[in-house]
Amino acid sequence: xxxxxxxxxxxxxxxxxxxxxxxxxxxxxxxxxxxxxxxxxxxxxxxxxxxxxxxxxxxxxxxxxxxxxxxxxxxxxxxxxxxxxxxxxxxxxxxxxxxxxxxxxxxxxxxxxxxxxxxxxxxxxxxxxxxxxxxxxxxxxxxxxxxxxxxxxxxxxxxxxxxxxxxxxxxxxxxxxxxxxxxx
Amino acid sequence: xxxxxxxxxxxxxxxxxxxxxxxxxxxxxxxxxxxxxxxxxxxxxxxxxxxxxxxxxxxxxxxxxxxxxxxxxxxxxxxxxxxxxxxxxxxxxxxxxxxxxxxxxxxxxxxxxxxxxxxxxxxxxxxxxxxxxxxxxxxxxxxxxxxxxxxxxxxxxxxxxxxxxxxxxxxxx
Lengths: 184, 173
Description:
The complex is a heterodimer. By secondary structure, chain A is an all-alpha fold. Helix content of chain A is about 70%, strand content about 0%. In chain A, helix 1 packs across helix 2. Classes of the chains: A mainly alpha, B mainly alpha.
Protein backbone atom coordinates (compact mmCIF):
# COMPACT_ATOMS: atom_id res chain seq x y z
CA UNK A 1 0.00 0.00 0.00
CA UNK A 2 1.34 3.43 -0.92
CA UNK A 3 2.12 6.07 1.67
CA UNK A 4 -0.54 8.38 0.25
CA UNK A 5 -3.16 5.67 0.64
CA UNK A 6 -2.06 4.99 4.19
CA UNK A 7 -2.33 8.70 4.99
CA UNK A 8 -5.77 8.80 3.41
CA UNK A 9 -6.96 5.85 5.49
CA UNK A 10 -5.46 7.36 8.62
CA UNK A 11 -7.40 10.56 7.91
CA UNK A 12 -10.57 8.48 7.55
CA UNK A 13 -9.83 6.85 10.88
CA UNK A 14 -9.74 10.33 12.40
CA UNK A 15 -13.13 11.00 10.81
CA UNK A 16 -11.95 13.65 8.35
CA UNK A 17 -14.88 14.25 5.95
CA UNK A 18 -12.77 15.20 2.91
CA UNK A 19 -10.77 11.96 3.23
CA UNK A 20 -13.98 9.96 3.51
CA UNK A 21 -15.28 11.59 0.33
CA UNK A 22 -12.05 10.81 -1.49
CA UNK A 23 -12.08 7.17 -0.44
CA UNK A 24 -15.71 6.90 -1.45
CA UNK A 25 -15.02 8.36 -4.89
CA UNK A 26 -12.08 6.04 -5.51
CA UNK A 27 -13.56 2.75 -4.40
CA UNK A 28 -17.31 3.06 -4.97
CA UNK A 29 -17.27 1.88 -8.61
CA UNK A 30 -15.44 -1.31 -7.65
CA UNK A 31 -17.75 -1.93 -4.71
CA UNK A 32 -20.85 -1.25 -6.75
CA UNK A 33 -19.76 -3.74 -9.41
CA UNK A 34 -19.34 -6.40 -6.72
CA UNK A 35 -22.74 -5.58 -5.27
CA UNK A 36 -24.36 -5.84 -8.71
CA UNK A 37 -23.11 -9.41 -9.12
CA UNK A 38 -24.88 -10.47 -5.93
CA UNK A 39 -28.21 -8.84 -6.69
CA UNK A 40 -30.82 -8.78 -9.37
CA UNK A 41 -30.97 -5.06 -9.90
CA UNK A 42 -29.36 -1.69 -9.35
CA UNK A 43 -31.75 -0.71 -6.57
CA UNK A 44 -30.71 -3.64 -4.38
CA UNK A 45 -27.07 -3.07 -5.29
CA UNK A 46 -27.33 0.57 -4.23
CA UNK A 47 -28.81 -0.48 -0.90
CA UNK A 48 -25.91 -2.89 -0.39
CA UNK A 49 -23.39 -0.22 -1.40
CA UNK A 50 -24.81 2.32 1.04
CA UNK A 51 -24.92 -0.17 3.88
CA UNK A 52 -21.37 -1.29 3.08
CA UNK A 53 -19.97 2.25 3.18
CA UNK A 54 -21.56 2.92 6.54
CA UNK A 55 -19.92 -0.26 7.84
CA UNK A 56 -16.60 0.76 6.29
CA UNK A 57 -16.47 4.16 7.98
CA UNK A 58 -17.78 2.78 11.26
CA UNK A 59 -15.17 0.04 11.44
CA UNK A 60 -12.27 1.58 9.55
CA UNK A 61 -10.29 1.89 12.79
CA UNK A 62 -10.07 -1.90 12.88
CA UNK A 63 -8.43 -2.01 9.44
CA UNK A 64 -4.71 -2.74 9.49
CA UNK A 65 -2.49 -1.17 6.82
CA UNK A 66 -0.71 -4.51 6.45
CA UNK A 67 -3.74 -5.88 4.61
CA UNK A 68 -5.23 -4.99 1.25
CA UNK A 69 -7.72 -2.16 1.63
CA UNK A 70 -9.50 -3.14 -1.57
CA UNK A 71 -9.76 -6.74 -0.39
CA UNK A 72 -11.18 -5.53 2.92
CA UNK A 73 -13.77 -3.43 1.11
CA UNK A 74 -14.76 -6.31 -1.17
CA UNK A 75 -15.29 -8.59 1.82
CA UNK A 76 -17.53 -6.03 3.46
CA UNK A 77 -19.63 -5.76 0.30
CA UNK A 78 -19.93 -9.55 -0.02
CA UNK A 79 -20.87 -9.96 3.63
CA UNK A 80 -23.45 -7.21 3.32
CA UNK A 81 -24.84 -8.81 0.18
CA UNK A 82 -25.17 -12.16 1.94
CA UNK A 83 -26.95 -10.51 4.85
CA UNK A 84 -29.20 -8.70 2.39
CA UNK A 85 -29.95 -11.93 0.57
CA UNK A 86 -30.82 -13.77 3.78
CA UNK A 87 -33.02 -10.91 4.92
CA UNK A 88 -34.93 -10.81 1.67
CA UNK A 89 -35.09 -14.45 0.71
CA UNK A 90 -38.60 -15.85 0.61
CA UNK A 91 -37.56 -19.46 0.24
CA UNK A 92 -35.07 -21.50 2.19
CA UNK A 93 -31.55 -21.31 0.87
CA UNK A 94 -31.25 -25.08 0.68
CA UNK A 95 -34.33 -25.38 -1.57
CA UNK A 96 -32.82 -22.83 -3.87
CA UNK A 97 -29.44 -24.46 -4.22
CA UNK A 98 -30.55 -28.07 -4.21
CA UNK A 99 -32.31 -27.73 -7.53
CA UNK A 100 -30.49 -29.80 -10.12
CA UNK A 101 -30.47 -28.48 -13.61
CA UNK A 102 -29.46 -30.59 -16.55
CA UNK A 103 -26.88 -28.79 -18.66
CA UNK A 104 -26.78 -29.25 -22.39
CA UNK A 105 -23.14 -28.47 -22.66
CA UNK A 106 -20.14 -29.83 -20.87
CA UNK A 107 -16.87 -28.25 -19.92
CA UNK A 108 -15.09 -30.17 -22.62
CA UNK A 109 -17.30 -28.54 -25.26
CA UNK A 110 -15.46 -25.28 -24.85
CA UNK A 111 -12.11 -25.38 -26.55
CA UNK A 112 -11.77 -21.66 -26.23
CA UNK A 113 -13.82 -19.19 -24.31
CA UNK A 114 -14.74 -16.04 -26.10
CA UNK A 115 -17.04 -14.16 -23.80
CA UNK A 116 -16.57 -10.69 -22.51
CA UNK A 117 -17.33 -9.45 -19.02
CA UNK A 118 -20.86 -8.28 -19.78
CA UNK A 119 -21.80 -11.62 -21.33
CA UNK A 120 -20.37 -13.52 -18.41
CA UNK A 121 -22.14 -11.20 -15.95
CA UNK A 122 -25.42 -11.77 -17.77
CA UNK A 123 -24.90 -15.54 -17.62
CA UNK A 124 -23.96 -15.49 -13.93
CA UNK A 125 -27.04 -13.41 -13.17
CA UNK A 126 -29.19 -16.21 -14.66
CA UNK A 127 -27.85 -18.77 -12.17
CA UNK A 128 -30.20 -19.85 -9.41
CA UNK A 129 -29.52 -17.58 -6.45
CA UNK A 130 -27.74 -20.19 -4.34
CA UNK A 131 -25.52 -21.26 -7.22
CA UNK A 132 -24.73 -17.65 -8.00
CA UNK A 133 -23.65 -16.93 -4.44
CA UNK A 134 -21.31 -19.91 -4.22
CA UNK A 135 -19.90 -19.31 -7.73
CA UNK A 136 -19.27 -15.64 -7.11
CA UNK A 137 -17.65 -16.24 -3.74
CA UNK A 138 -15.43 -19.08 -4.87
CA UNK A 139 -14.47 -18.18 -8.43
CA UNK A 140 -14.43 -14.40 -8.44
CA UNK A 141 -13.79 -13.43 -4.80
CA UNK A 142 -11.47 -16.32 -4.07
CA UNK A 143 -13.15 -17.63 -0.90
CA UNK A 144 -12.40 -21.16 0.28
CA UNK A 145 -15.20 -23.72 0.62
CA UNK A 146 -14.83 -23.62 4.41
CA UNK A 147 -15.37 -19.86 4.45
CA UNK A 148 -18.34 -20.13 2.08
CA UNK A 149 -19.90 -22.83 4.23
CA UNK A 150 -19.49 -20.67 7.34
CA UNK A 151 -20.78 -17.52 5.66
CA UNK A 152 -23.83 -19.18 4.14
CA UNK A 153 -24.49 -21.57 6.99
CA UNK A 154 -24.28 -24.65 4.81
CA UNK A 155 -22.27 -27.84 4.86
CA UNK A 156 -18.78 -27.88 3.34
CA UNK A 157 -19.75 -30.61 0.86
CA UNK A 158 -22.86 -28.69 -0.09
CA UNK A 159 -20.67 -25.75 -1.02
CA UNK A 160 -18.52 -28.01 -3.23
CA UNK A 161 -21.48 -29.64 -4.94
CA UNK A 162 -23.17 -26.28 -5.52
CA UNK A 163 -20.04 -24.95 -7.17
CA UNK A 164 -19.81 -27.97 -9.46
CA UNK A 165 -23.44 -27.60 -10.46
CA UNK A 166 -23.07 -23.87 -10.90
CA UNK A 167 -20.19 -24.37 -13.33
CA UNK A 168 -22.19 -26.80 -15.45
CA UNK A 169 -25.25 -24.60 -15.34
CA UNK A 170 -23.23 -21.59 -16.38
CA UNK A 171 -21.58 -23.43 -19.22
CA UNK A 172 -25.00 -24.45 -20.42
CA UNK A 173 -26.09 -20.84 -20.49
CA UNK A 174 -22.90 -19.80 -22.25
CA UNK A 175 -23.34 -22.63 -24.76
CA UNK A 176 -26.82 -21.44 -25.60
CA UNK A 177 -25.55 -17.89 -25.90
CA UNK A 178 -22.82 -19.09 -28.24
CA UNK A 179 -25.31 -21.02 -30.41
CA UNK A 180 -27.55 -17.97 -30.64
CA UNK A 181 -24.56 -15.90 -31.67
CA UNK A 182 -23.67 -18.42 -34.41
CA UNK A 183 -27.22 -18.37 -35.76
CA UNK A 184 -27.21 -14.60 -35.93
CA UNK B 1 -11.44 -27.19 -20.65
CA UNK B 2 -10.78 -27.99 -17.05
CA UNK B 3 -12.68 -26.44 -14.18
CA UNK B 4 -9.63 -24.50 -12.99
CA UNK B 5 -9.10 -23.00 -16.44
CA UNK B 6 -12.73 -22.00 -16.64
CA UNK B 7 -12.56 -20.39 -13.19
CA UNK B 8 -9.39 -18.54 -14.09
CA UNK B 9 -10.93 -17.25 -17.30
CA UNK B 10 -14.01 -15.95 -15.48
CA UNK B 11 -11.90 -14.42 -12.69
CA UNK B 12 -9.71 -12.61 -15.20
CA UNK B 13 -12.76 -11.11 -16.85
CA UNK B 14 -13.89 -9.56 -13.59
CA UNK B 15 -10.57 -8.10 -12.54
CA UNK B 16 -10.70 -4.32 -12.15
CA UNK B 17 -14.45 -4.36 -12.61
CA UNK B 18 -16.05 -1.00 -11.94
CA UNK B 19 -19.54 0.41 -12.34
CA UNK B 20 -20.27 3.95 -11.21
CA UNK B 21 -23.22 4.26 -8.86
CA UNK B 22 -25.67 7.15 -9.00
CA UNK B 23 -24.65 10.38 -7.28
CA UNK B 24 -27.65 10.12 -4.98
CA UNK B 25 -26.06 7.12 -3.29
CA UNK B 26 -23.13 9.26 -2.14
CA UNK B 27 -25.48 11.83 -0.64
CA UNK B 28 -27.42 9.07 1.13
CA UNK B 29 -24.23 7.51 2.51
CA UNK B 30 -22.90 10.76 3.99
CA UNK B 31 -26.31 11.82 5.25
CA UNK B 32 -26.52 8.52 7.13
CA UNK B 33 -22.99 9.00 8.46
CA UNK B 34 -23.82 12.50 9.71
CA UNK B 35 -26.95 11.24 11.40
CA UNK B 36 -25.03 8.44 13.06
CA UNK B 37 -22.31 10.86 14.18
CA UNK B 38 -24.88 13.25 15.64
CA UNK B 39 -26.54 10.37 17.48
CA UNK B 40 -23.23 9.21 18.93
CA UNK B 41 -22.35 12.75 20.02
CA UNK B 42 -25.81 13.16 21.55
CA UNK B 43 -25.42 9.95 23.50
CA UNK B 44 -21.94 10.98 24.65
CA UNK B 45 -23.21 14.40 25.75
CA UNK B 46 -26.12 12.82 27.58
CA UNK B 47 -23.76 10.41 29.32
CA UNK B 48 -21.46 13.24 30.41
CA UNK B 49 -24.46 15.24 31.65
CA UNK B 50 -25.74 12.25 33.58
CA UNK B 51 -22.37 11.68 35.24
CA UNK B 52 -22.04 15.37 36.11
CA UNK B 53 -25.57 15.49 37.53
CA UNK B 54 -24.99 12.36 39.58
CA UNK B 55 -21.71 13.73 40.93
CA UNK B 56 -23.35 17.03 41.87
CA UNK B 57 -26.25 15.25 43.57
CA UNK B 58 -23.86 13.07 45.55
CA UNK B 59 -21.84 16.10 46.56
CA UNK B 60 -24.94 18.00 47.71
CA UNK B 61 -26.31 15.04 49.68
CA UNK B 62 -23.03 14.22 51.33
CA UNK B 63 -22.92 14.93 55.14
CA UNK B 64 -21.32 18.23 56.03
CA UNK B 65 -17.76 17.83 57.27
CA UNK B 66 -17.15 18.34 60.99
CA UNK B 67 -16.23 21.94 61.81
CA UNK B 68 -12.56 22.46 62.20
CA UNK B 69 -11.34 22.44 65.78
CA UNK B 70 -9.56 25.57 66.94
CA UNK B 71 -5.85 25.20 67.26
CA UNK B 72 -5.47 25.03 71.00
CA UNK B 73 -1.94 24.72 72.31
CA UNK B 74 -1.65 21.11 73.42
CA UNK B 75 -4.98 20.83 75.22
CA UNK B 76 -4.94 17.13 75.83
CA UNK B 77 -2.58 16.87 78.79
CA UNK B 78 -4.34 19.55 80.82
CA UNK B 79 -7.58 17.89 81.48
CA UNK B 80 -6.85 14.26 81.97
CA UNK B 81 -3.16 13.63 82.24
CA UNK B 82 -2.82 13.65 85.98
CA UNK B 83 -5.76 11.46 86.96
CA UNK B 84 -5.58 9.06 84.09
CA UNK B 85 -1.87 8.49 84.30
CA UNK B 86 -2.00 8.00 88.05
CA UNK B 87 -5.02 5.78 88.16
CA UNK B 88 -3.38 2.48 87.08
CA UNK B 89 -0.78 2.76 89.84
CA UNK B 90 -3.37 3.11 92.57
CA UNK B 91 -4.94 -0.11 93.79
CA UNK B 92 -8.66 -0.14 93.45
CA UNK B 93 -9.03 -0.95 97.17
CA UNK B 94 -7.36 2.33 98.10
CA UNK B 95 -8.75 5.07 96.02
CA UNK B 96 -7.04 8.38 96.40
CA UNK B 97 -9.30 10.86 98.02
CA UNK B 98 -8.14 13.88 96.11
CA UNK B 99 -8.19 12.21 92.82
CA UNK B 100 -11.82 11.37 92.77
CA UNK B 101 -13.18 14.71 91.59
CA UNK B 102 -10.70 14.84 88.79
CA UNK B 103 -10.95 11.26 87.69
CA UNK B 104 -12.38 10.57 84.30
CA UNK B 105 -15.67 8.98 85.17
CA UNK B 106 -19.08 9.27 83.64
CA UNK B 107 -19.92 11.81 86.33
CA UNK B 108 -17.09 13.91 84.94
CA UNK B 109 -18.88 14.57 81.72
CA UNK B 110 -21.18 17.30 83.05
CA UNK B 111 -18.12 19.12 84.38
CA UNK B 112 -16.48 18.95 80.98
CA UNK B 113 -19.60 20.24 79.41
CA UNK B 114 -19.44 23.10 81.84
CA UNK B 115 -16.25 24.24 80.19
CA UNK B 116 -18.23 25.27 77.21
CA UNK B 117 -21.00 26.82 79.29
CA UNK B 118 -21.00 30.03 81.26
CA UNK B 119 -20.57 28.33 84.61
CA UNK B 120 -17.16 29.80 85.16
CA UNK B 121 -17.18 29.43 88.99
CA UNK B 122 -17.30 25.67 88.70
CA UNK B 123 -14.52 25.76 86.21
CA UNK B 124 -12.35 27.83 88.51
CA UNK B 125 -12.98 25.44 91.33
CA UNK B 126 -12.08 22.55 89.16
CA UNK B 127 -8.91 24.18 87.96
CA UNK B 128 -7.67 25.23 91.35
CA UNK B 129 -8.39 21.87 92.92
CA UNK B 130 -6.34 19.97 90.39
CA UNK B 131 -2.89 20.83 91.84
CA UNK B 132 -4.12 20.01 95.30
CA UNK B 133 -5.20 16.66 94.17
CA UNK B 134 -1.84 16.10 92.64
CA UNK B 135 -0.14 17.01 95.91
CA UNK B 136 -2.22 14.49 97.76
CA UNK B 137 -1.30 11.84 95.29
CA UNK B 138 2.34 12.67 95.75
CA UNK B 139 2.13 12.65 99.54
CA UNK B 140 0.65 9.17 99.66
CA UNK B 141 3.95 7.89 98.36
CA UNK B 142 2.72 6.01 95.41
CA UNK B 143 5.45 3.82 94.24
CA UNK B 144 6.78 4.46 90.79
CA UNK B 145 5.03 7.75 90.42
CA UNK B 146 6.79 11.04 90.48
CA UNK B 147 4.97 14.26 90.03
CA UNK B 148 6.87 17.06 88.48
CA UNK B 149 5.53 20.51 88.70
CA UNK B 150 7.18 22.45 86.00
CA UNK B 151 5.52 25.70 86.75
CA UNK B 152 2.48 27.20 88.22
CA UNK B 153 -0.70 26.16 86.47
CA UNK B 154 -1.44 28.56 83.75
CA UNK B 155 -4.75 29.59 82.53
CA UNK B 156 -5.14 30.24 78.90
CA UNK B 157 -8.25 31.63 77.51
CA UNK B 158 -8.96 30.79 73.96
CA UNK B 159 -12.26 31.52 72.39
CA UNK B 160 -14.13 31.27 75.66
CA UNK B 161 -12.45 28.08 76.82
CA UNK B 162 -10.07 27.80 79.73
CA UNK B 163 -7.29 25.29 79.87
CA UNK B 164 -4.83 24.41 82.59
CA UNK B 165 -1.24 24.02 81.50
CA UNK B 166 0.95 22.19 82.06
CA UNK B 167 0.86 19.24 84.45
CA UNK B 168 3.24 16.46 83.66
CA UNK B 169 3.43 13.11 85.34
CA UNK B 170 6.24 10.69 84.73
CA UNK B 171 5.71 7.06 85.47
CA UNK B 172 8.77 5.06 86.41
CA UNK B 173 9.09 1.42 85.68
